[in-house]
Amino acid sequence: MAHLESRKHISPDSGFPITIHPHFNAKIKEHIPPEAIRSEITPSKDRASFADPEKKALFATGAKRTDLTESIGTILENIQLSQLTPQQLDELALLVSERGVVFFRNQDLTTAGQEALFEHYGTLDRHPAQKTQRHVIIKGSTEDHREIASYTPWPSGDFHADTSFELNPPSYSLLRMEEHPPVGGDTAWVSQYGLYDALSEHMQRFVDGLHAVHTSRLQYDTILDLWGVGPNRPPIDTHHPAVRTHPVTGLKALNVNPGFVTGFAELKKRESDKLLDFFDLHLHSADDHAVRWKWDVGNVALWDNRATVHRVIPGSYEAPRRGIRTTVFGEKPYFDPKSESRDGRARRLKAEAAAAAANDNDKVGVADVPTKIAPGSESGDGRTDATVEIVKEADVPA
Ligand SMILES: [Fe+2]
Asked: How many A from CA of 292 to the centre of ligand 1?
């Protein structure tokens, strides 16, 4: 069970613990972070920007692609991450940017191999509670997260994008499982492209201009008490666009998560609280934009931290759960008002394709159409007789 300081302070009336202010919690009060607050950096260009849109090199490996849902999540089989070339890694990043999260089974990656592979994608980031420089160990949660939330300000079991409070939140995250219980400890991801798409157009226009307050303060206080871990850096609040533009796909993604967002900079408190409540419901009811992964040893999940949120599902398993996670610094989130939603792009492309097809048909005048074509034959320019019949009907006034 958690070593919560609050559990030592029991109300004589109810018999339940009383939460004391963090300032009087010795574990929080006495901790002095050893590092300073970070400054903004400009990371190198996203590797997915260099990829072949058709990903021919990646699929030349014989990799078998299966999309797990329409909105998010793909599994690649018959592929070893440890064997991929730089070009194939770029194409994999593009696939991840598009699908949100990509899964692999039976991987032979080592921790050193994982770190080296991830350095292809940028400079390795470090979680505030991470003691080693190059990776963090992810154990999962067997706490009763609903009960813990009574005493800690941070919703530790809820959806989040990794360290979204940083000035440069991670672009990509990779989690490789080394030990895992036979049941329990699943991780769920939800598409932030999909969550934006699912808003009404009026709500999209409203949220487009807002800034979400992403904070590490609640996590800072909580992990000092709950985990007994001293964060490396002081807590910060960062205002990021509530809707961000993905630098590779150019798509809009919602940039709000219950793990780290405490409000909206432009709104008054009550407005902000109610909007957060709505987004909590919006996220937790988005089964059509979610995917859930049942882990096994040797599995890997590689996700885009800008286009998804995730959470490990708390459980009561007793066998150890141990994953190795690496992240790399991403760009400072930005909002380009000219960017489009994923649904909006799909509608535009469909309309453009229909318009192009209609335009092609317009170019085929009646005089150009052979009057007699044998059934099943082609008209000479690749159009079948059936196509020609349609063109003739459309072109000839009644
Ligand atoms: Fe996470």
From this structure: 14
pLDDT at 119 over 80: yes
Task: Tell how far the Cα of 103 is from the centroid of ligand 1, in angstroms.
Answer: 16
Strand duo 300-304 + 308-312: pairing: unpaired
- Condensed to tens digits (0 to 9), the pLDDT of residues 179-217 reads 999 999 999 999 999 999 999 999 999 999 899 999 999
Distance in Å, CA 196 to ligand 1 centroid: 20
Distance from the CA of 163 to the center of ligand 1, in angstroms? Answer: 8
Sequence spans of domains, the chain: 5-344, 364-398
SS3 288: helix
Q: 64 C-alpha vs ligand 1 centroid, how far in Å? A: 27
Please name the amino acid found at residue 257. N
- pTM for the predicted model, two decimal places: 0.89
State in Å: Cα 310 to ligand 1 middle.
6
> Does domain 5-344 fall into CATH 3.60.130.10?
yes
| Element housing 26 (H / E) | helix 26-29
**Among 104, 55, 96, which residue's Cα sits nearest to residue 77?**
104
Q: How many angstroms does the Cα of residue 88 sit away from the middle of ligand 1?
A: 25
Distance CA 105, CA 291 (A): 16
